[in-house]
Amino acid sequence: xxxxLGTTITVSSNHWMMAWTGLEINTLAxxxxxxxxxxxxxxxxxxxxxxxxAAASTLLLFSSMTNAWFTGQWDITQLTHPTSCxxxxxxxxxxLGLTPFHFxxxxxxxxxxxxxxxxxxxxxxxxxxxxxxxxxxxxNPNLLTTMAIASAALGGWMGLNQTQIRKVLAFSxxxxxxxxxxxxxxxxKLTLLTFYLYCLMTSAIFLALNTTKITNLATMMTAxxxxxxxxxxxxxxxxxxxxxxxxxxxxxxxLIIQELTKQEMTPVATTIALLxxxxxxxxxxxxxxxxxxxxxxxxxxxxxxxxxxxxxxLITTLISLSILLLPLSPMIFKTT
Length: 336
Prior knowledge:
Layout: H1 2-12, H2 16-34, H3 40-71, H4 82-96, H5 104-110, H6 114-121, H7 126-134, H8 141-158, H9 165-182, H10 188-212, H11 217-221, H12 228-242, H13 250-262, H14 266-291, H15 313-324, H16 329-335
Helix pairs in contact: 1-2, 1-7, 2-3, 3-4, 3-5, 4-7, 5-9, 6-10, 7-10, 8-9, 8-14, 9-10, 9-14, 10-12, 10-13, 10-15, 12-14, 12-15, 13-14
């Protein structure tokens, strides 16, 4: 309830103090969820998350106070002072985990459970994204474009050598944030659409991984013995998150590349499209491990000969939507 309250306060506020209050409520609400397992790794993740978010909130409050000092305005949409815009971009980038402020996110996600990781990757990113959209006319386009390309590059590059699934999904999130940020100034509605579809696909993958108890590549190789149909559709959801054309994940990338081309930013569109191939490699590796590969030696994991075949209706609905939403693209073209 506190998470929903903090998100609602931040998204619906016009005053900087109310937005800051909502972000603080969110931070204080998620910390017990991260540390509830009482494992040293979880406590470490909660501490890292608290320190990072506290620093980002302080910077955000300082930027709004600086803007109010010079302009007399506390309205979120009236952010006009250059120093305040730079500080706000830094603060929101730290909260989201954009490059070069991404170091905390993979560590925190790895120390959390799957359900808490789902909240960190989706719901906790909504208030900072809303603040970016509200202040987008005042932000520096060169800075945002540089950070977006760096996020897409680093998210793909760092995900290549990971064996822990949560870290792979963390770097995937950083890469998708780059796609959201690069189109922010030119079409904020498209940023919101990309965020919604990213949340849909990530929720489907996290819930499926939580059901099959997959945490790394080794357990993913033996996941087919638990629920074979879910593992197969999980492969399609991973390829959708990678952005392969027949699936839902291709839709936001298609629209973003089209919009960047309209804005005469063809080199930027080409660069970020090529950088997404790095991410496609580790998504293909995950899909390959989930459905095709068997371990070459005797596995230490217990085989589930008598498996629980029941899958929650929410997981099947989310996976179906994350695979089959591309035919709705003409309707989205009309609305945007």
